[in-house]
Amino acid sequence: MMTDTEPAVVLVRTFRATCDKLYQAWTDPVMIQRWLAPGPNVVEQAETDLRVGGRFRLQTRGPDGAEHRISGCYRELEPARRIVQTWIYDGPLDLLRGEETLLQIEFTPRDNGTSDMRLTHKRIARADIREAYREDWPSCFDKLAPLLH
To answer: How far apart are the C-alpha atoms of 106 and 14, rounded to whole Å?
Structure first.
């Protein structure tokens, strides 16, 4: 069993957006469809049930046609402040499939209309899986940044 002291992927990025807008980007299915897939992958479907205990589901597709599914459950929802949700990958990548990991996303307002977003991806048992997520998340954030203006 993993504990919160296990190694995690921690990324912090500053966006030209309010914390409200960043929270919306993570919780509004229309927004999610525009950015929450790494690299050249695209989100084909996104569903959210925004309540503690509610579920979310993503279906993405890669340029090779491969279908990737991610699902999970919301553990904490604090509008414009924090989201904690489980993250379960189901798709063709054996490396990532089947493990329930935990995402913690925190939003902090800064000066000049910017906000910091801190993503902590926990409960990832293996170093190679952590590295895969460490490489993929920034490409998602690159897609998110222009949507927030």
So the answer is: 12
List of residues 6+ apart from 25 with CB closer than 8 A: 17, 31, 32, 35, 144, 147, 148
Domain 9-148 has what CATH class? alpha beta
pLDDT higher than 80, residue 64 = yes
Sorted by where each begins, the domain ranges of the chain are 9-148
Whether the predicted model's global pTM rises above the 0.90 cut: yes
